[in-house]
Amino acid sequence: MTDLRTELGEAVAAAFAAEGVDPKLARVTPSDRPDLADFQSNGALAAAKALKQNPRELAAKVAARLEGDARLASVEVAGPGFINLKVADAALAARAAEVAGDAAHAGAAGVEAPRKVVIDYAGPNVAKPMHVGHLRSSIIGESLKRVFRFRGDTVWGDAHFGDWGFQMGLLIVAVGDEGRADAFMAEGDGPFPAQSPVTLEDLERLYPAAAARAKEDADFRDRARKATAELQAGRPGYRALWKHFVAVSRTALEREFGALGVTFDLWNGESDADPLMSEMIVHLETRGLLVEDAGARVVHVARPGETRKKKLADGSVIEAPSPPPLLVISSEGSAMYGTTDLATILDRRKSLDPDLILYVVDERQAEHFEQVFRASYLAGYAAEGSLEHLGFGTMNGPDGKPFKTRAGGVLKLHDLISMARDKARERLHEAKLGEDLPEAEFEDIAHKVAVAALKFADLSNSRTTSYIFDLDRFMSFEGKTGPYLLYQAVRIKSLLRKAADQGAEPGPIAIGEPAERDLALTLDAFSQAAAEAYDKRMPHVVAEHAYRLAQSFSKFYAACPVLAAPDAALRGSRLALAKATLDQLVIALDLLGIDTPERM
Ligand code: ARG
Asked: Which residues form the Arginyl tRNA synthetase N-terminal domain (predicted)?
């Protein structure tokens, strides 16, 4: 299935080629002047320059070749040599019918060669509270997972659970000191209690205190380091205790992510890469990649000449490699964050053999990924270019600093969602929406509106920009917001229900009115929007399309009576357009991770 813009692009390319012009110049874009044309191609200008021809004359020759094309109502040369294309109503109607008939993809084409893709996102940690970086990662990653799957790839979303490393040692020591886990502190093989000695509340209380204490108390810090090392070396009691920490955290996190409509195919932890660690170290050694550096072992990843100025402790400045070497084994002998990521790449290659791994992680970790990717390529763990870090900006509070909930410090997903839900209820009451519905349904709607508001606010911004958390604005039923889009979708659902009650059915599509033309063109544009969001890994392109579609429908609905259409054929056609719009809007929202309620 091909969209009109692509089809016309091919027709113009053929006409260019027939005039001896490089068809690559034939790019067809939506018209800058929708009052004059639907699409345009500016290629004749560049081509004429290269061929030393008059651009208007060249454009006229190309236009003449397109003259007989039945899909076009008119082909005109404008200005210095633009080619303006107006699509025939019948072609628009045929394309709209195609979109309407495509329940699963609403007219969007898939990729030609599906790939296997891992998307590493959310990255929550055992016991450590989540911050806005984790929230954005979850929202963006979930959307990309859906976009990639929608286009035909095989996709695994992996939470890459932070369940290894120093924070685990901190927790073991903290729990041990409280005297509630004595059974696990014993050396030896157990058996150990099957019941967790800690709850989530315990972990959330103990971790921040332990992390703070480790900063001041050197003895405590050393004990935590030792516990980390022993855990990693496999001390059975620590392992058993650690398993409880992981299980307790994961259950709570899955519930919170679930409320946000974020689910994972894999909950692999950093720990899952551990069994590969020794094999990897040996391999890096044999390849001569692992080198000694002041007691630690590192992989050099900077290429010759890649340096930056670095200030040393004594105040002198040197040219140091940039990016800095990847620290694989610290001087104390522990595996580091980067080591885990490197081993995870190896693990994924052995288990899934992906063509592409996308890391949706805070922009602040850009250098970490640059180091890990380069080391992987050097070691041959991944094909050059098959690892991508997709960074993002921060969600800021009104003070311009990363957003925090009022309770201070910590962003609890649960608190954020319930805050949004309170606001959603308030707004629904203000707008007199959903009030006559049963309590449980009203609650479900409030939840969907809340999630839509949070996600759309995030995803309507380009991934790389930062934005300000403003719940009042996010939750408005007017403007470019999640609630506005849900409201428009629900409005169409109610129109279709009403039609069905009156025995009116969608019928063959005919296009005539300007508002119908605009709606059909917008429906056509979804395929390109999905492709662009995929190619650029930018969900905002889909968000933008959803908003444009809702607006186009609003104009159509205001200008073209549906149930009160002058005759049954026109009514059937308009109902079919409404249905196609709804289906595409619901799909686009779903790609953003947003669920549409039945009514409001
Ligand atoms: N757990 C990490 C953090 O909280 C994020 C993990 C990102 N993914 C990765 N493969 N390193 O910062």
From this structure: 2-87
